[in-house]
Amino acid sequence: MRSYIKFADRLSVSMGKAFSWCIVILMGGTCYEVFMAYALNAPTLWNFDFSLQMYGAIFMMAGAYTLCTEAHVRGDVIYRLFSQRVQAWIDIVLYFIFFFPGVIALAFYGYEYAALAWKIKETSWNSPAQIQIYMAKSLIPLSGSLLTLQGIGEVFRCVICIKTGSWPERGTERDAEETEKVLMRTSQEGNKEDVI
Fold first, then answer.
1. Cα(first)–Cα(last) distance of the chain, in Å?
2. Phi then psi for 102, rounded to 5 degrees?
């Protein structure tokens, strides 16, 4: 189980970091459009759709990374008051009731959706440039598959927590963290130093 968790985490983090470069491309495209439109008075036909595709790629491919690094939105006002074993039981039940049906449907039906787009070489219907969108639609089943793989790793984490009574360490580095988590971690480290 632990080796699968490492594999899923590495895959999710590497895909998330790879697709994070879409932000740089998106910014470059936006700067180019602003320059063309306002400095040269020659706006492009393709840039709006290009920006939508880049943003869509970031959004779709960041899901598994977000789940892996626990950066998703979580209403844990009551949840964090429970013991770690109870948290793991809650998580495992919710993964099977809500998470897996949605992401498996995303992968399965997204494959059919993307396959049809590739078959007809689909272009954007609302773009005067008629840019191709079938490549972007391929990210739908890919993101569903990555989320499924990461979800299996999260279920394995829950099983380990149920057996041992504590959550296994995450091997992912801390790229970005909520301020609350940073403050809690630093205060816990400060408390340990005071005790010693």
1. 35
2. -70, -45
Give the side-chain half-sphere CA count within 13 A for 15: 28
pLDDT at 40 over 70: yes
pLDDT of the residue at 92: 96
pLDDT band at 192 (very low <50, low <70, confident <90, very high): low
Would you state the structure tokens that stand for residue 25, as one six-digit string?
A: 């491309």
Calpha distance 182→177 (Å, rounded): 7
In DSSP terms, which residues pair with 132 in a beta bridge? 123
> How far is residue 145's CA from residue 103's CA, in Å, rounded to a whole number?
7
pLDDT, one tens digit per residue, over 136-185 is 899 999 999 999 999 999 999 999 999 999 999 887 656 666 677 677 77
Structure confidence at residue 125 (pLDDT): 78
| Both tokens assigned to 165 | 């009574």
